[in-house]
Design a protein that fits this description.
The complex is a heterodimer of chains A (699) and B (227). By secondary structure, chain A is α/β, with parallel strands linked by helices. Chain A has 5 domains: 68 residues, Alpha-Beta Plaits (2-Layer Sandwich); 126 residues, Alpha-helical ferredoxin (Fumarate Reductase Iron-sulfur Protein, Chain B, domain 2, Orthogonal Bundle); 154 residues, FAD/NAD(P)-binding domain, CATH 3.50.50.60; 146 residues, 3-Layer(bba) Sandwich (FAD/NAD(P)-binding domain); 150 residues, 3-Layer(aba) Sandwich (Rossmann fold). A 5-stranded parallel beta sheet of chain A has the order 3-2-1-4-16. In chain A, helix 3 packs across helix 19. The longest helix of chain A is centred in the last third of the chain and has 26 residues. Chain B is an alpha/beta fold and 227 residues long. Classes of the chains: A alpha/beta (699), B alpha/beta (227). The interface between A and B is medium-sized, with 35 and 35 residues.
Chain lengths: 699, 227
C-alpha cells in the first residue's frame, strides 16, 4: 500500500515536456533542446544519438544548416540565441559521427527509384532503406550529392563529409547509378520500379534578360560553382563582378577570391538589409575582401578589348513588395559604366524538368505536388526538394526527402497517409520583462574560424570546432524552454503560495479564481519550487528517458553495495559542474575509493529525502557539490543550504554528527574543492571509526 | 490557518516505539501550508525515521505514508479504512483537531500526534509564521484598527500601551513590535484616534464554556413528507 502517492507522481511526470520554439522552427523538428542539454552535461555520445534520431545526415547539417532554430531561440530575447548549429558540429565531431556504421535489411520487395542525389534524394533513400525497401539512386553527374557537391563550395562543406554519407548509404545497401540521366519515367516503371521520387534540384540559373548577357566573360553562378566544385579552375582575370544578393552570389564571390581574383565586387540592386544571403555568409565574404556595391543593376554589357564593359543604373528603394522587401526602382539618367574581366550572374535558380517526365509544372518551373503526400499528377511518382520548392535550404530538402520516404511507404503498403500530427503541445510566447531581468546574461560563444588571410587562398573549411569547455559553456546558456515546472496535481495543491514565494524568476502567479498558475513559457526550470512544494504537487516537465535523481541515486547505491568499499560517501554533484569544466570533473573521471557520485541537473533540485535516502542506505557521509561561479541560476546556494541545515538538524536529533553532510562549491570562490573534499573524506573516516568504537563499547 | 510545528524526532521515536507498523498520515490543508505535515513533510519524516532505524539497532518499524486532503472531516478519512487494518498505529501529522478526528473515526487503533499545534496565524514570508488570532470568541478588532491586542500584545491588555513600550517595541522582546503602538499609528492614519481615548472594561474569560459548539442549523424536525 505504502508509496502509491509517490509512484503516482513518478508515473505522471513522464513525457510532459512542451515542444520548444527551436524544434518547431527546424524543418526536421529535431529534439534540439535535448541534445543541447546533453552537450551541456558533456554527454556527447548521447547528444549524437539524439541528433541522429532526428537527422539522417547530421554532419552535413552541422556545416551548412541555415539554423532557423537559432532565429526562433528565445534566448535572443535575453541576449543572443544559442549557437545550435555549432553545438551540433561539436557533437558530431566529438561524438565520432563519421565512425558510425549503419546496416539495413531488405524486408520489402517493391523497388524504389530516386532520381537525383541531392540532400532530398539521399535522405529519401536513407529512410526507405531503413524501412526495408530496395532503393536505387540515379544521378546525372559523375558524383553524388547534388547541390551538396556542385553547389556548395568546399570551404563551407568539405567533400569528405558528403563522401562519408554516400559511403554509409552504399553500406546500407542503396544502389547507386551515377552518370545516369533519367530520360523517361515510363522506362523506370518498365524495369520494375514501383515508385519514383523525383528530386532533380534547381540547377538552372535565371537570366537577367539584358543586352550582352551572352558575351564571353559572363557566366552564370550555378555553372561557375559547378565547375569550381568539380575541380575545374575557370580563369576569371583580375576584376570580377557578381550580380545578386543571395547565398549563391556570396559563394560565387568567395570562390572567385579563392581562385585568385584580385578584386571581387558584389552588385546588388537593393541594400544590405534586404540581402537574402545569411548574415554570417555576408560577414565572412566581407572579411575576405569582397566589396559590395548596393542599389545598382546592370542594364547592358559589351565585350571590348578583352574586358567587359558593364552599364549600370542606380536604384532607389520604393514600396515594399509582396514579400515585404522594398522594391528597387531605377533612378532616371543615372547610368554609368564600369569594367570587369568577368561577370557572374547569381540572381536566382529554377528547376529544369524534362518534358518527357510528363509532370505538371507550376510556378517558377517547379513540379506541382500535393504538399502533404508529395504525390505528382502521375501515379507512383513523388517529387520533393528544390525541384518542388525552388531554391531552398539543405535542411528543408532533407525534411522533404524524409517526408517522401514515409509517403512512398504509405503508397506501397496501400495505407492512408499517416500524416504527422502535432500531438504534443508547443511552447510559444515572449518572455516577460521581469523574467528576462532575472536571467543572467552570458555571452554567446562563437566557434573559432580561420582568419581571413588564411582562408582566402584555399578551399579549406572556414569554421573550426569548439573545444570541450566552450561547447559546454555555450550549451549551458540554453533556457530549456518547455521543460519547466508544472502543477501536475491541482487536487493536491493547497495554494500555500510557496512556489510563488520561492521562484527567483517571479513566474508563478495567482489567477483571478485564486488558483496558482505557473506559465510554461516563463518558467526557467530551476526546480526550486518542485523541491519546496509542501504538497509535492509540482513536477518538472521531463523529456523522454532522462533519469530522475532518485533513479540515479538507486543506481549509485547499488553499485556501491556491490563494490563493498568503505567508508561510503555519496556525492550529489551538479551535472554541469561535474561533467563539464568544473573542479570535480577529474573526480568523476578518475574516481576515488568509496565515493559515489549521483549526477543532478542543478543541486537546487535536490530534495531532503534524496539525502536522507543515501544515509539510510549506508552512506557514512554525503556531500553536495554545485558548479560554483559557473552557475547560471539564481539563488541555488540559498536553497541548498536551507535544506542542508534542516537535514543537519534531523541528523543530530537522530544521533548522527551533522558534519556528515557537507557542501562544496556552492558559491563563487570557495578555494580548492579537491582539497576540501579530501579533508571531508578524512573526517568521515574518523567519524566512522569513532562510531564503530562506540558500538563496541556499548555491546 | 492553523500553524503547527513538527515534534522533535526524539519524541516521535519514543511514541512510536511500541508499534511495528506505523502509518505516517499527512494533512493536505493547514499542515501542508505551514510546512508541518503535508505530503513533503510526511515523506521527509519517513526518510528520517528510516535513517534513524538504519543507524541504530533498536526497534524495527515498518513505515508507510499517506496524505489526505483534510484530517478534520470524517469523509476524507474514508479512503484510509483499508489501510488502517494493516498498521499498528497512526502517527498523525494533522493538527490537534486532525488527530482527534482520526482517533474518533478509527476507534480501534492508537493515533499519535506528530506535530505540536501552535496557533492560528499567517505566513509573514517564506518560512516564517506569525500568530494573529486567539479565537477568544469576542472579536474587538473594530475598535483596535484591525490589530488584535489579545494575540499580539505580550500581556494581552485591552487598554494599551503599557509602560513597557519603548521605541515602538515591547519590553518583553525588543525585536517585537508593541501591538498598541501599531494600533495607535493605524488609528491615527484612519483618523480614528478617539477610539484610543475610550476605556475598555476587562473581559470575563470565564464566560466561555468549553468545549465550544456552534450550531448553525435551525431546529426543524426532519420530516418524511417532502413528496
Amino acid at each position: 500500500m505504502d508509496n502509491y502517492q509517490a509512484s503516482r507522481m513518478r508515473e505522471a511526470s513522464y513525457g510532459h515536456s512542451l515542444i520548444p520554439p527551436c524544434q518547431v522552427a527546424c524543418p526536421l523538428h529535431m529534439e534540439i533542446g535535448e541534445y543541447v542539454d546533453l552537450v551541456a552535461q558533456g554527454k556527447v555520445l548521447e547528444a549524437l544519438q539524439v541528433i541522429r534520431d532526428g537527422n539522417p545526415f547530421p554532419s552535413i547539417c552541422a556545416y551548412v544548416c541555415t539554423h532557423p532554430c537559432e532565429d526562433a531561440c528565445r534566448r535572443s530575447q535575453v541576449d543572443k540565441p544559442i549557437a545550435i548549429r555549432a553545438l551540433k558540429r561539436f557533437a558530431v565531431e566529438f561524438g565520432g559521427d563519421r565512425m558510425i556504421q549503419l546496416e539495413a535489411e531488405t524486408t520489402q520487395s517493391e523497388k524504389v527509384a530516386v532520381v537525383g542525389s541531392g540532400p532530398a534524394g539521399l535522405a529519401c533513400a536513407y529512410y526507405l532503406r531503413k524501412l526495408g525497401y530496395p532503393v536505387t539512386i540515379f544521378e546525372a553527374y559523375s558524383e553524388l550529392g547534388g547541390m551538396l557537391r556542385v553547389g556548395i563550395p568546399q570551404y563551407r562543406l568539405p567533400r569528405e563529409v558528403v563522401d562519408t554519407e554516400v559511403q554509409r548509404l552504399i553500406h546500407m545497401g542503396v544502389e547507386i547509378k551515377a552518370n545516369t540521366r533519367v530520360i523517361s519515367l515510363d522506362l523506370l516503371f518498365d524495369i520494375g520500379y514501383k515508385a519514383v521520387f523525383i528530386t532533380v534540384g534547381a540547377h538552372q540559373s535565371l537570366r537577367m534578360g539584358i543586352e550582352g548577357e551572352e558575351s564571353p566573360g559572363v557566366i552564370d553562378g550555378a555553372t561557375f560553382l559547378r565547375e569550381v566544385n568539380l575541380g575545374l579552375k575557370p580563369s576569371l582575370g583580375e576584376e570580377v563582378a557578381v550580380v545578386g544578393g543571395g547565398n549563391v552570389a556570396m559563394d560565387a564571390a568567395r570562390a572567385a577570391v579563392r581562385l585568385g581574383a584580385s578584386k571581387v565586387s558584389i552588385l546588388y540592386r537593393r541594400s544590405r538589409a534586404e540581402m537574402p544571403a545569411g548574415p554570417d555568409e555576408i560577414e565572412q565574404a566581407l572579411e575576405e575582401g569582397v566589396e559590395t556595391m548596393f542599389l545598382m543593376a546592370p542594364t547592358k554589357m559589351k565585350r571590348e578589348n578583352g574586358r567587359l564593359g558593364v552599364t549600370c543604373t542606380r536604384m532607389e528603394l520604393g514600396e515594399p513588395d509582396a514579400g515585404g522587401r522594398r522594391r528597387p526602382v531605377p533612378i532616371e539618367d543615372s547610368e554609368f559604366n564600369m569594367e570587369f574581366d568577368t561577370l557572374i550572374t547569381a540572381i536566382g535558380q529554377a528547376p529544369q524538368i524534362s518534358e518527357d517526365f510528363r509532370l505538371r509544372i507550376g510556378k517558377g518551373s517547379t513540379i506541382q505536388v500535393d504538399p502533404v503526400t508529395l504525390t505528382t499528377n502521375r501515379a507512383g511518382v513523388f517529387a520533393g526538394g528544390d525541384a518542388v520548392t525552388g531554391p531552398a535550404t539543405v535542411t528543408q530538402a532533407l525534411a522533404s526527402g524524409r517526408q517522401a520516404a514515409f509517403r512512398i511507404d504509405d503508397y506501397l503498403r496501400h495505407r492512408y497517409p499517416l500524416v504527422d500530427k502535432e500531438a504534443e503541445e508547443t511552447l510559444s510566447g515572449e518572455l516577460s520583462p521581469e523574467t528576462i531581468e532575472m536571467i543572467r546574461k552570458t555571452e554567446r560563444l562563437e566557434p573559432p574560424i580561420l582568419p581571413p588571410e588564411a582562408r582566402a587562398k584555399e578551399f579549406k573549411a572556414v569554421e573550426l570546432i569548439y573545444n570541450w569547455e566552450a561547447a559546454v559553456d555555450e550549451a549551458r546558456r540554453c533556457l530549456r524552454c518547455g521543460m519547466g515546472a508544472e502543477i501536475l496535481f491541482q487536487d493536491k495543491c493547497a495554494t500555500c503560495l510557496t512556489c510563488l514565494r520561492v521562484c527567483p524568476y517571479h513566474v508563478p502567479y495567482l489567477d483571478e479564481g485564486g488558483t496558482i498558475q505557473i506559465p510554461a513559457d516563463q518558467c526557467q526550470a530551476c526546480g526550486i519550487c518542485v523541491a519546496e512544494c509542501p504538497a509535492r504537487a509540482i513536477v518538472l516537465r521531463k523529456p523522454y528517458d532522462r533519469r530522475h535523481i532518485d533513479e540515479e541515486l538507486e543506481h549509485a547505491l547499488k553499485s556501491a553495495a556491490e563494490s563493498k568499499s568503505k567508508p561510503l560517501i555519496i556525492g550529489f554533484c551538479c551535472q554541469y559542474g561535474l561533467f563539464g569544466t568544473g573542479a570535480l570533473a577529474s573526480l568523476w573521471r578518475g574516481g576515488k575509493a568509496g565515493i559515489w557520485i549521483v549526477p543532478v541537473l542543478c543541486v537546487a533540485k535536490l530534495e531532503g529525502e534524496h539525502i536522507l535516502r543515501a544515509f539510510e542506505m549506508g552512506a557514512e557521509g554525503v556531500f553536495i557539490a554545485g558548479c560554483g561561479e559557473q552557475c547560471s541560476r539564481e539563488n541555488t546556494a540559498f536553497w541548498v543550504l536551507q535544506r542542508v541545515e534542516r537535514i543537519r538538524r534531523a541528523l543530530s536529533q537522530i544521533g548522527l554528527e551533522p558534519e556528515r553532510l557537507q557542501t562544496f562549491n556552492l558559491r563563487a570562490a570557495e578555494g580548492d574543492t579537491a582539497e576540501a573534499l579530501d579533508n571531508f573524506t578524512g573526517q568521515i573516516g574518523r567519524l566512522c571509526l569513532a562510531s564503530v568504537i562506540k558500538q563496541e563499547v556499548k555491546s | 490557518m492553523i500553524v503547527a510545528e513538527q515534534k522533535p524526532m526524539e519524541e516521535i521515536r519514543r511514541v512510536i516505539a511500541p508499534y511495528e507498523r506505523v502509518l505516517l498520515l499527512g494533512c493536505g490543508t493547514c499542515m501542508t501550508v505551514c510546512g508541518a505535515g503535508g505530503e513533503r513533510e510526511v515523506s521527509f519524516l519517513n526518510s528520517a525515521l528510516r535513517v534513524a532505524q538504519a543507524k541504530s539497532s533498536d526497534g524495527i518499524h515498518n513505515f508507510s505514508e499517506y496524505t489526505v486532503k483534510r484530517q478534520c472531516d470524517f469523509e476524507f478519512l474514508d479512503s484510509l479504512a483499508d489501510k488502517v487494518n494493516e498498521v499498528d498505529a497512526i502517527l498523525s501529522l494533522g493538527c490537534g483537531i486532525g488527530v482527534q478526528v482520526v482517533a474518533e473515526r478509527f476507534p480501534d487503533i492508537p493515533v499519535l500526534p506528530g506535530v505540536n499545534t501552535s496557533f492560528m496565524g499567517m505566513a509573514k514570508e517564506w518560512g516564517v509564521w506569525d500568530e494573529r488570532c486567539a479565537a477568544c470568541g469576542d472579536c474587538r478588532l473594530a475598535e483596535t484598527a484591525g490589530i488584535c491586542p489579545i494575540t499580539r500584545c505580550t500581556k494581552g491588555i485591552l487598554n494599551g500601551p503599557c509602560a513597557g513600550t519603548k521605541n515602538g517595541k515591547c519590553e518583553a522582546n525588543k525585536d517585537m513590535d508593541c501591538a498598541w503602538i501599531l494600533i495607535y499609528k493605524r488609528l491615527e492614519r484612519l483618523q480614528q484616534l478617539d477610539k484610543m481615548r475610550r476605556y475598555y472594561p476587562p473581559r470575563n474569560f470565564r464566560v466561555i464554556p468549553r468545549p465550544r459548539r456552534i450550531v448553525m442549523k435551525a431546529d426543524v424536525e426532519p420530516g418524511e413528507d417532502n413528496g
